[in-house]
Specification:
By secondary structure, the protein is α/β, with parallel strands linked by helices. The protein has one domain. It is 33% helix and 28% strand. It contains five helices and seven strands. Strands 1, 2, 3, 4, 5, 6 and 7 form a seven-stranded mixed β-sheet that branches. The longest helix is centred in the first third of the chain and has 19 residues. The N and C termini lie far apart (63 Å).
Length: 185
């Protein structure tokens, strides 16, 4: 069988484009998946949560992964292996995005100057906040219709948890179909 150069080029371009679509989803998909993940928090009234603009570090050895879409979970792990930032326009009145450096500075141990540190420093820097949330970049199935996101939340005391969210795209809209506990303090 004779394979022409044109057939080889078409195969290579098709395979490359399919791989890129899986490995590098459009920013609009990331934004839509993350906004869908934040929707329940955004519907709340009262104190707000601070959202780090840096993607969350994923937990090692946490539970809750068994029920999730394996392709999307693997892609999420790959996309979050290196430090990265979330899309800039996430948030709502109940979720205030903040620079990770400002969050880290607020949580540092107290300085000799008497500036509060730890959670006291956080609440002094983000007056009115309920706590801190971090999101991962989403991971996607090869078909692009399933996404997995990791979210952690923390506040003063023994107030922390991590969850995986599985979302499905139906008729162009993302919605949460599964929440799985990763850890709780």
């Amino acid at each position: 069988m004779k394979i022409t150069a044109r057939a080889c080029a078409i195969f290579i371009l098709t395979a490359t484009c399919a791989f890129r679509a899986f490995a590098d989803p459009p920013a609009d998909d990331d934004r839509a998946v993350l906004q869908a993940t934040l929707a329940a928090l955004c519907a709340q009234s009262g104190p707000f949560d601070v959202l780090s603009n840096s993607a969350a570090q994923l937990p090692l050895g946490a539970g809750g992964e068994q029920q999730l879409n394996g392709e999307a979970l693997g892609d999420m792990r790959q996309r979050n292996a290196a430090s990265s930032h979330l899309p800039a326009d996430l948030g709502c009145p109940a979720v205030h995005p903040a620079d990770e450096e400002a969050i880290a500075a607020a949580l540092r141990p107290p300085a000799a100057s008497g500036r509060p540190g730890g959670w006291d420093g956080f609440y002094a820097s983000f007056a009115g906040a309920r706590g801190l949330i971090r999101l991962s970049l989403p991971g996607y199935s090869k078909a692009g219709d399933v996404a997995v996101v990791y979210m952690s939340s923390a506040c003063r005391g023994f107030c922390g948890a991590g969850f995986y969210y599985e979302l499905h795209r139906v008729k162009g809209a993302w919605s949460i179909t599964r929440r799985s506990n990763a850890w709780v303090t």
